[in-house]
Write a structure and sequence with these properties.
Length: 293
């Protein structure tokens, strides 16, 4: 089943469901994650995809889970077109199961969640709140309520195979509109409480539309066109060279003494080797700019 995002609305609700199995597997491979780290990273990527689905074209968000647990920081950048990238500080974390499930809360620990929205406004908006559980879905729900005053329900899940590959991943985000009645919210809560974990639903073959049918049972639903979502990093050799120019004269000179530089992208672990000759050209550019200023 392909990775995708489904949007739906009712007169009082807007909802989003995403299947992110393939992009979570790509992230697992790129960051060499053990199962509990795969679950933590996959949930964060899925949350970012769902939050970005609320954006307008060319807008983006950065979601950070900054806990004191062994996996360290988790960061995801997501865009309105379905593109997402992310990394986990320490993917090589192995913890015992808790009640038969991956102990994501223990892996993440305590700390804060941070969400930056890059919109058409001149300056991005960043909001923060405390991590209430480390399970990520509850943390995003709490953030939306306290930082953005948006009543919502977020569910995230990652199911890992015995061979540590990703069997299923995805989630949903449901937001009550300002005109939502108590009866609407009560029915939503009842529906959400009655369904299985979202990763299990995806693993049994349910589509994003099927999941929203369950979440929005009893409502008149308007479905919008399904869109793709995918893991893609924005790094390139050109961007790496621009970054080296921004480092300045002293650091580049140190790299030249070493004979070369190896730059590794945090988000995708791609390695870029920069030769001594290229570094000398970068230094020349830096010196030229200094003379011009």
């Amino acid at each position: 089943m392909k990775d995708c995002i489904q949007r739906a609305t009712t007169s009082e609700i807007r909802a989003f469901a995403a299947i992110t199995t393939n992009l979570t597997e790509v992230a697992r491979n790129k960051h060499n994650c053990f199962p509990v780290a795969t679950a933590a990273l996959g949930r964060t990527l899925t949350a970012a995809v769902l939050l970005a689905a609320t954006l307008k074209t060319k807008e983006a968000i950065t979601l950070k889970i900054l806990g004191d647990g062994p996996v360290g920081d988790i960061v995801a950048d997501a865009y309105a077109n379905g593109q997402v990238r992310g990394y986990i500080q320490n993917g090589a974390v192995d913890l015992p199961l808790k009640n038969g499930k991956l102990d994501v809360a223990q892996a993440v620990g305590q700390g804060q969640i941070s969400l930056t929205r890059f919109t058409t406004l001149k300056h991005p908006f960043t909001g923060t709140s405390k991590l209430v559980s480390g399970e990520i879905a509850e943390d995003v729900t709490h953030y939306l309520a306290v930082s953005e005053q948006t009543p919502s329900c977020v569910a995230l899940g990652v199911l890992v195979n015995p061979d540590e590959t990703v069997a299923a991943a995805g989630g949903f985000l449901v937001e009550a509109l300002p005109n939502a009645s108590e009866e609407t919210i009560s029915l939503l809560e009842k529906n959400v409480a009655s369904i299985n974990s979202v990763s299990e639903l995806i693993n049994t073959g349910l589509s994003t539309k099927d999941i929203l049918d369950l979440v929005l049972k009893g409502f008149e639903i308007n479905y919008h066109p399904e869109t793709d979502t995918f893991f893609k990093c924005q790094c390139s050799r050109e961007r790496i060279l621009e970054m080296l120019i921004s480092l300045g004269k002293q650091e580049v000179e140190e790299m030249i003494k070493d004979g070369q530089a190896e730059i590794i992208c945090h988000f995708c672990n791609e390695k870029y080797n920069v030769s001594k000759e290229d570094l000398q050209e970068i230094l020349n550019i830096i010196l030229t700019k200094q003379v011009e200023t």
